[in-house]
Amino acid sequence: MMQSVPMCLSLAGIAPEGVGAREGPRGLIDWAARSGVRGVRLDGGAKGLRARELDRSGRRDLASLLRRLELRFAGIDLWIPAEHFTDPNHAGRAVDAVIATIGLCTDLATLGLSVAGRSVSIVLPKGADEVARAIEAAAERAGVRIADHGEGAEPRAAPGGAVGVGLDAAALLLRSIDPVAEVSRMAGASGSRLVSARATDTDGIGRVALGDGRLDIAAYAAALSIARGPRIDAGDVVLDLRGVRDQGAALERGLAAWVSTGIGSV
Predict the structure, then answer these.
(1) In sequence order, which ranges of the chain are alpha helices (DSSP H)?
(2) What is the pLDDT of residues 115-142, one digit of tens each?
(3) In this structure, what CATH number is given to the domain that contains residue 160?
(4) Based on the structure, what is the number of domains in the chain?
(5) What confidence tens digit (pLDDT) does each residue in 139-184 have?
(6) In contact, 199 and 169? CB cutoff 8 Å
(7) Among 83, 154, 191, 198, which is disulfide-ready with 238 (CB 3.0 to 4.6 Å)?
(8) What is the extent of the structural domain holding 244?
(9) What predicted TM-score, i.e. pTM, was given to this entire model?
């Protein structure tokens, strides 16, 4: 019997006014809970959720909010522009922000939240190997895994290492790459290079709600179930609504499409 693959919602790129949520990151968290979501991936770049803005008390309050709303903590997205990591004017601040976010991830995970939430998604450009090594060292010390969504991620990713690959199904489909085959290819016997996978969809032109495009959702869920195996610390698949129209309806559609596979859950 295949392992169930839970789905979380990334809060990055969701406009509060567009979904009827209160302004601010905590408003989106509350909206997600009311919308039937059971796991959330926080937006590490959102005002009020940036690591530098949250002291110990703020981190306890955030963890308490997630527990009160019965939401799993499913990690953090930190979408710093990739070019900042190689720009001398921005690289230092960019790396510092990632390292600080790693610390926030650890603190939230140790405040009674999910062990499976110990991952941070970023985009590193090709050639940023020195930056990747600095981030990897910090992640190893903290027990956090980095999901690199950059095009140069795979050569830097060692099986089971602190820096691995972040996979976005729609992005692969737009490049005529089969996401199901990619999941299977990355999940080797020596340890998976895949840290975080996104359940996203496309009609071949742009991003659309999950279930309205070309992704074979059932096959994708099955591949992720096999790749996860029995690991209790495996992260949730991420429903990412960036670039999708009518995000409230897309959330409902995506959750239903995922659960309808019989493998996916919320």
Answers:
(1) 16-19, 25-34, 56-68, 91-110, 129-142, 153-156, 169-174, 179-186, 217-228, 247-259
(2) 677 999 999 999 899 999 999 999 999 9
(3) 3.20.20.150
(4) 1
(5) 999 999 999 999 878 888 888 789 999 999 999 999 999 999 999 9
(6) yes
(7) 198
(8) 5-265
(9) 0.95
